[in-house]
Amino acid sequence: MSSTSIEYTKKDLPSNVTKLGAALVVIGLVITILAYFIDHTRSAFNNLILLMFLSSVGVGSLFLVVIEYLGGAVWSVPFRRISEFFGAVLLILPIIAIPVYFNLHDLFHWTHIESVAGDKLLEEKSPYLNEMFFTIRVLAYFLIWIMFYLVITRNSRKQDVSGDQKLTKKNIRYSAIFIPVFAITLTFASIDWLMSLEPHWFSTIFGIYYFSGTVLTALAIATFAIVSLNEKGLLVKGITKDHYYSLGALMFAFTNFWAYIAFSQYLLIWYANLPEETFWFLARWEGSWMYFSIGLIIVRFLVPYIGLLSQPSKMNPKRLKIMSVWILFAHIYDLYWLIMPTYSKDGIVFGWIEFGFPLLAGGILILVFNMRAKNQNLVPIGDPKLKRGLNFRL
Amino acid sequence: MSGLDYTQEISVVEGQPSLREIEDLISKPLDSKPDKKYYIALAITMTMLGIGVIALGLSFYYGTGLWGNNNPVGWGFPIVNFVFWVGIGHAGTLISAILFLFRQKWRNGIARFAEGMTIFAVMTAGIFPLIHVGRPWLAGYLIPYPNQHSLWVNFTSPLLWDVFAVSTYLTVSFIFWYVGLIPDFATLRDRTTNKLKKIIYSTFSLGWRHSNRHWQHYEMVYLILAGFATPLVLSVHTIVSFDFAVSILPGWHTTIFPPYFVAGAVFSGFAMVQNVLIFIRKIFNYEHIITVDTLEKMNKIILLTGSMVGYAYAMEFFIAWYSGVQPEQFTFINRAFGPYTWAYWIMVSCNVIFPQLFWFKKIRTTIPVMFVIGVLVNVGMWFERFVITVTSLSRDYLPSSWAYYAPTLTDAGILIGSFGLFFTLLLLFTKTLPVVSIAEVKAVVKGSQPSHGDH
Amino acid sequence: MSDKVLFSYTGIFDKVDDIIHAAEKVADAGYTKYDVNTPYPVHGMDGAMKLKPSKLGYAALVFGLSGLLAALLTMYWMVVADYPIVIGGKPFFAFPAFVPIIFEVTVLAASIGTVMTMLFLFFKFPNNKHPLHDTDYMKHVSSDKYGISIQADDPAFNENEVKSFLESIGAQEITPIYFEENEYGYSAKIFEPKFIGFLIITAFLVSGATYFSLNKLMFMTPFNWMMEQGKAVPQEYNEIFANARSMQQPVKGTISRGNLPYEFKGKPEEAERVLLNPLQLNEKNLTMGKANFNIYCSPCHGYFGEGDSRMRGQFPNPPSLHSEKARNWSDGRIYHIISDGQNIMPSYSSQLTRQERWATVLYIRALQRSLNAKESDLK
Questions:
Q1: Contact at 8 Å (CB) between B133 and B141?
Q2: CATH topology of domain C268-374
Q3: Which of A120, A169, A202 shows the shortest C-beta gap to B319?
């Protein structure tokens, strides 16, 4: 075990990637601002997709970091930093939420007091679904996530210098506290932002549904970054096919998990056939939404499933890169499927507005990552488990 | 602060025993004659089994009217016990398959035993749907074969899914278990001096030669089996949950049921495995193979799954309110404050509150305390199934037919008998087969794998 | 010794690192028919022995897909093609509800198939007659040592060279392994008499048990209790009642739900006088009447009431409904005829409800008007 030594020297990230990120952000911003002037309702819906996508990246990455501490995993230690960097998206989430917040009336039916008044169900729900409480909750989610992000990553960064093992122990503690908090906040965030778009609809599994997509997204973006950086030699030496395999296997597993959760939800509602539940799925079977719903099965499940099924494909860097980008796309597709039927009841809408927001998302992710990577090591060199992580073999 | 060193891997086997010592230790119960304690234990479990057999015999002779089942609660003890035992069976496959996929080496010491428990628990569980139909000798009609009615079974019925799921689960668990046993049979074959044993072991080892040309495929097959068993184990309790959730009964029809049931099953299964392992390691001196560290990790999983179950309870309650559906709201209020209040609060305290004690390392590593919590968890999980099954049925949509369900002595006898059957099989298992995988434990002893550095 | 056939040369190693290096060297030396035996799988041995990756994944894929297709097609044929029944308002091909079973069968087929492929096809098990069995070498590698065995049928095999080669790579206890008499040329056969006998016995036992339980056991006490309950069986003797019958006549004066008895039975004149059509003349009632007329009346009376029967003489043709007599009957009289019958025409009171009868009367009136319209109708 002693024969490997950690070979890591800090190198700058290629500047053209940063430039690409900046360009994407500029183009994205231009399109989105323009979009808000032209059709602010539609833009708000798209902005919500953007918000939920970046939330997935941010809080999902934080979840990956936390679960590594808690599970005592070693194989992922060499690239824990990558997830930490993506976790920084949490810091700008409130900014992205602002335009959504100012258009709440366009998004959420229950914010209209006059339409709630006649609706018995909504009246009953109003202790929960009201703007005041909604605001408090949303602020609480952001605050909690950012707080944990700052504490955990600060300890991790400190360790680069000191190599103090107590910091690992501390972070394990914080992680243990974070897990229940994460479960509750993520569930209620998904209920607030996504489920309450159709305030009459309810499903107990919904939080887990969003959780599965969140973890998958965080895994995919981390995998993409890890494989690309490692190919350029920017990471520590000693990352092998076994590490790649673990990433691929996890993406594969969570693809299946998503399918399991989505199918369970669909089957139970389809089978019981209660009108208070089925209308949500019927809305996604109306007009061209039908093709979009069938597409969801293919995009979100079948393609990654077949793409990552065989053992060699889970280790193939090219395949991993393609699949991770595909999974990111699939998450946006999924969010579109969750959100847009509320906006456009007759069928799918797609235009330059829908195109602009994902561009902005891509740009933000690149910029955030590169800004973080500028001043920090890409590898937690002080982590006591790093050497074991590099020695990891299946 | 304990002097934990994260740079070093904690060995799953304590004290660096030699390969020979491990083998001797594990096969000792097979080579030695059972002692008095074993017979006492067997006598107790056989008595319990006997009670069950008598209760079942009476039920067959006089009919299912001996049970507490009646309108509106048609699903009493039999279904509660069925779900309970299937749940117990889930830990085994989880340990042998999911933890294998996650490369958790500490599973190697306990996997064989947990797999055995899976098989016995599923066998025990299988009895209940059969007796619950009233005429178990007609169970053949559940199989889609061209029969004289030229009718086919109802493929859209979750009860039929159960037939497929549970029998598939039993078969695949059995295959998994047997594949794991083949190398151990070969080792035993080469150790034994008894002629009869040699023939038996040779037959079951199929002529295994420890060849590395075979080990390669063997490991692949193990990986593939684990890959199939993982979704399978999820599917089984998912389908059991569908038995309830595809209905439109308030308290049963809720979309979180599949993952919630799976978490609950793993939860109770782990508690059962932990309980039994505490005895096994003591009786057979396996303290170095099944270490306190292993038990602590199991307790962590109990804590995790227990909290998941708690999450599901909370979610059900919240969404029942949020949905605005009155029968749904009534059901949950009725559960917590209705005639079955006692059962509900036993469930909540045992499943959600007591396992939270495992947040403390001291409790996670103190054997008597963890044993008690493990027992409580299983009590709680049994009551969970009781609460779900009985409260919803006893207060259904038609208030005129509301009734209080009370089990009879026969019901209790069958429940005791199911424990008797399970533990009898388990006791026989400990004396006939190696309860710890010899090959797998050898593979994780320190110094048993080549060092990686030089190639 | 001399008549024994050599199988292989074996050597034993103590340390796991040594066996890896030794395996590498054997592979480098160009031997192909050799084996490394270790009590547990050693990491990195595939690479050292230069083994090709296992192909079992394909077996799993093929078996899994076959299971999937078999389940899907079988269920489709059974519930869509062979015997479709509507269950729970779901379509015949209720795919979401098929998924659980498809999944289970897929997993079952793939697991069994892959394991069988490995054991019987790849390993050619069961094989307890391999020359390595019952040797000291096997006792060692089965427990705590690591061994290499270079086989005599290797093209590069040369007894002395192999011996010295094994020595050079550090092997201990270098021993030759010979075939025993019954081992040479042995290969596992499926059609072994013992195995076939086992299958036949199993088949007999299973079918016997099935036959017994379905044909004998079900008729034994207490299994027959479900059939022989103390209950009243229709058309059977029953001593509870005075007339010793299970089925009793209803109490006098009982009428079945929704069927009031017709009170003008055999009194056509009275019916003509008293009964009035309670239905309004509107499109709904006329449609109802037309439908019933076409079903029940038209076979004999014809679609337009002209007495042009479609019965081809099997039944005497009724007179036309457009006769003076028929036109002058009151609604009540026509209603009476439908309810009570007339001449050879039977009563239709069991086929038509009262409302339907009155609606039919309306339609008959409309038919009569159509051939004998009044002046006022043209306006």
A1: no
A2: Cytochrome Bc1 Complex; Chain D, domain 2 (1.10.760)
A3: A202
